[in-house]
Amino acid sequence: MGKLICDSCGNEVSSFSARYGYDTIFCKNCYGTEKAKEIIKKRREEPEKEALKKMEIEKELEQLNGDFPYHFKALLSYGKISSAIGWIIVIIGVIVFFVGFANLEFDGALGISAILGGIFISILGIGMVIGGQLVSCFVSIEKNTRSTYEILKSKS
Ligand SMILES: [Zn+2]
User: Fold this and answer.
1) Which of 41, 78, 90, 135 is the S-S candidate for 125 at Cβ 3.0 to 4.6 Å?
2) In the chain, what are the domain boundaries?
3) What is the number of alpha carbons within 13 Å of residue 103 lying toward its C-beta?
4) How much distance in Å is there from the Cα of 50 to the middle of ligand 1?
């Protein structure tokens, strides 16, 4: 058994006489005294204060990160526009697909062409959406990396 030290008076405590409360150790003499109660109160408040401090830092970081400028605004816009146009193309592809499907019995060749064309257009659109999202994603990653680096640098 290792040596236990009373948190109040600092005297060595045998494990038998140790009293615990909120990770504190008191000797028989100190347990229940005003000073001991004060120490327990402080210990109890510590995690709360710690959590509050952490929350404040996180909020501050979030704000700093939010205010941080994008380096590749054009790329970001490109990504968003490309993604939006991609979705429109997907919708057009789906419409062409169903139009082809509906016309199959009237004009088989045209119907099949439209169905295949619709699938092809949809795939192109999805490709554009993915490409646009990838671009936006990379720009965001670049920004976050840079802002994290700058924030860490300013804090050290
Ligand atoms: Zn003591």
Assistant:
1) 90
2) 4-57, 68-155
3) 14
4) 27
